[in-house]
Design goal:
With 155 residues, the chain is mainly alpha-helical. It has one domain. The chain has six helices and two strands. Helix 3 runs antiparallel to helix 4 and helix 4 packs across helix 5. The longest helix has 23 residues. It is globular, with a radius of gyration of 22 Å.
Length: 155
């Protein structure tokens, strides 16, 4: 955040935004909290053995939304099973490295004292929305059964 102060002549002078290692504290807290939460959930909850209907869309319509299978996918990824993670929700697995890279860029900008808002170009937003819609439609068509999430509950 920049602060405006007056100089001796009364003109406004902008201070440089804060920068340095202290600005890395928030990203470190976010990462530590995320890792703690993931490890805790990994130890006490197995979505492949416990059927908890978390998706309202699937519960009400029987259709898989773009997020269906995300919890099973992350659980499988944390257990080291990349293929099962991809089979549970390929879209989320593809988005995780992009999210991690974006978080890294945000952290770097924060530490350097640069602006942290990074607006996405409109064509990229349209392409992402189109990919999400296409993934959602395809995973609900029987010919693309491999995109639908799997569950071993009751198997």
């Amino acid at each position: 955040m920049t602060q405006v102060v007056g100089d001796r002549r009364g003109a406004a002078v902008h201070d440089a935004p804060a920068r340095g290692p202290r600005r890395a504290l928030l990203p470190l807290v976010i990462v530590a909290g995320g890792i703690t939460l993931a490890v805790t959930v990994q130890q006490i909850f197995d979505p492949f053995r416990t059927d908890i209907p978390l998706c309202v869309v699937y519960h009400l319509t029987g259709l898989h939304c773009p997020g269906c299978g995300a919890i099973r996918g992350v659980h499988a990824l944390l257990a080291g099973d990349l293929l099962l993670a991809l089979r549970s929700n390929a879209l989320i697995m593809a988005a995780l490295p992009v999210a991690a890279l974006s978080f890294g860029v945000w952290t770097l900008h924060r530490i350097q004292g640069r602006p942290t808002h990074m607006p996405l170009p409109r064509p990229l937003v349209v392409a992402l929305l189109a990919a999400i819609i296409l993934f959602t439609v395809l995973r609900n068509i029987p010919a693309f059964w491999f995109l639908a999430p799997i569950s071993y509950v009751g198997a």
